[in-house]
Amino acid sequence: MSTTKILLTGNLGVGKSSLCSRFSRNEFSEQYLTTMNTRSNTKWVSTPSRKIELCVVDTPGEVDASKLPNKYWSGVQVVVYVVDATRQSTLDNITADVHFIQNTLPHAIVKVVANKIDLIDAQHKAKLSQHYMIDFFTSAKTGEQVNDLFLALAEATDAIVQH
C-alpha cells in the first residue's frame, strides 16, 4: 500500500473544491463558497498492480507557493492545475502558472484540467484542445471524467514507482 499526494491548484472559482468533493464523496453543491483554508481528503483507488491511497489537497485560489504553507507543497507527487473551461482569464494563466509549478516542484507530475465542461459545447471543447495544453476535461457537477482523472493520476504515479 502507498499514498500519492495530489495538490489541486488554480485560480478562484475554477472548481477545485467541487472536483475534490465529487471524487472523494461523490457530492456536488451548487452553492459557491470560496475556499479559505487548505483541506485534504483521502480515497483508495485500485490500479492494475495495487491499491493506492490518494491524498487530495484542495487549496485556496492561489498558485503562489509563498502563500501556501510548505507542508502542503512538501511531498507532492502530482499537481492538478484546474482551469474553468468557460472563463478565458483562467485559460490565459496556464502557461505562466504551469511554468511556476514546474520550477517549484520539478519532480512532480503536472496535469492541466479544464473543469465545467458541462457548460460548453463540443466545438468549444475542440478549440480548447487545439489551443491550450489541457490534459483532461471534467465536470465536477455531472461527475464526467472525474474518477477517470484521479485513476489516471494514480496509474501514472504507480508507473513511476514500478520503474
Describe the structure.
With 163 residues, the protein is α/β, with parallel strands linked by helices. The protein has a single domain, classed as P-loop containing nucleotide triphosphate hydrolases (Rossmann fold, 3-Layer(aba) Sandwich), CATH 3.40.50. Helix content is 35%, strand content 25%. The protein is built from 6 helices and 6 strands. A 6-stranded mixed sheet has the order 2-3-1-4-5-6, with helices on both faces. Strand 5, helix 5 and strand 6 form a beta-alpha-beta unit. The longest helix is centred in the C-terminal third of the chain and has 17 residues, at 146-162. The protein is globular.
Helix % is: 25-40%
Number of domains: 1
Order of helices and strands: EHEEHEHHEHEH
What proportion strand?
25-35%
Give the strand order, joined by hyphens, for the main sheet. 2-3-1-4-5-6
The biggest sheet amounts to: 6 strands, mixed
Cα-atom Rg, whole angstroms? 15 Å
CATH architecture: 3-Layer(aba) Sandwich
CATH class: Alpha Beta
**Count of separate DSSP helical elements:** 6
CATH fold label: Rossmann fold
Low-confidence stretches: none
- Alpha-carbon distance between the two ends: 16 Å
- Rounded mean pLDDT score: 89
How would you describe the shape? globular
Number of strands: 6
Considering the protein shown, what is the CATH homologous superfamily?
P-loop containing nucleotide triphosphate hydrolases
Structural class: alpha/beta
